[in-house]
Amino acid sequence: MLQVGLVGYGFMGKMHAQCYQATGQAQVAALVDVEPDRRADARSKFGCEVFESIEEMLASMQVDLIDICTPTYLHETHVISASKAGVPIMCEKPLSLTLDSCDRMIEVVREADVPMMVGQVLRFCNEYVMAKELVDSDRYGKVLWASCSRTSPPADWSWQGWLKDPEKSGGAILDLHIHDVDFLAWLLGTPVDVRARGVRSTMGAVDSVFTTSIHEGNVVSYAQGTLMLSRTSPFNMAFTINLERATIQMDI
After folding, report:
1. Nearest 10 degrees: CA dihedral of 22, 71, 237, 27?
2. Residue 252 burial by CB count (10 A; 0-12/13-18/19+): exposed, middle or buried?
3. Do residues 180 and 150 make contact, with C-beta atoms less than 8 angstroms apart?
């Protein structure tokens, strides 16, 4: 049974904890969160040890994996602490807010010789995996163009409102749009040209973004993402992949 040290027990942390439990092959052995009520909730649900800081957890017990589900602006500190302990790391996306921060994290992880994975989950979602397999099979010819969409109301539920603060979350570009940009790069290869425009929210974050990319072979992709829908609108994600002899579509 894989023993997981889960850092952060907000929306995504709770989701990760439930998923570990559902596998029957992993369990949350330790939980780190700064909020006492969250620590109490995790202890009652999973019977895990609870701590206020990652340093306290690492000093008190051993785990097989550290899963970092804290707000993006805290990722670098937690990844560095985990890597110095020599423990494999799972880090929620986005890895960090700047390239310099990402480079520092990658350097520390490499020096510590520990594996780390970033939670770009679309590469493991059935619909996206199936689309990738169909494209790679060449069964329906080459891709002519592809588009992705991910739209949502504002993230009003986030802890201390951090998702609405561009200095802490990076806005829709890093927290939402990054999913589809990553999927299209995985599907079609790293773009050779990227053009993007955005719309800022009242807090200054680019919370609507529209990206057009050119991939090898002159394949065009388009992605749109927003956290600016009305608060009564549902979350939606969709893609269309147009090939020479077929069209693959998903809309949820």
Report:
1. -10
2. exposed
3. yes
**Hey, what are 76's tokens?**
């670098």
Number of alpha helices (DSSP H) and beta strands (DSSP E) in the chain: 9, 12
Residue that is written with structure tokens 């994600």 in the block: 237
Model confidence over 34-55: pLDDT tens digits? 999 999 999 999 999 999 999 9
Alpha helices per DSSP H over the chain: 11-23, 36-46, 54-60, 75-84, 99-112, 126-137, 166-169, 171-172, 178-188
Q: Between the CA atoms of 84, 86, 88 and 89, what dihedral angle is there, to the nearest 10 degrees?
A: -10
What distance in Å separates the CA atoms of residue 82 and residue 223, rounded to the nearest whole number?
Answer: 34
| 151 vs 49: CA distance, rounded Å | 37
Taken in order of first residue, the domains within the chain and their CATH numbers are: 2-119 (3.40.50.720), 122-251 (3.30.360.10)
Q: Which residues pair with 243 in a beta bridge?
A: 143
Residue type for position 83 = S
User: How many C-beta atoms lie closer than 10 Å to residue 167's C-beta?
Assistant: 12
pLDDT in tens, 43-102: 999 999 999 999 999 999 999 999 999 999 999 999 999 998 999 999 999 999 999 999
The CA distance from 17 to 213, in Å, is 36
The whole-model pTM stands at 0.91
Contacts of 64 (CB under 8 A, 6+ apart): 2, 3, 4, 87, 88
Can you tell me which residue has the tokens 């992705």? 148
Q: Can you tell me which residue has the tokens 């790069």? A: 185
